Here is the input.
Amino acid sequence: MLVKMSEFFKNLPTKKCVECGKEIEEQHECYGNKCDHCLHVVD
Here is the structure.
């Protein structure tokens, strides 16, 4: 059975940072795998 692409992305699990394990607040289909804290991003 085929699934709509929008449904596929909506049902992906939340991403977690590979260093600290914290949930990453971004789109699940993006390529990043570290949170802003572990990337040392300054607001």
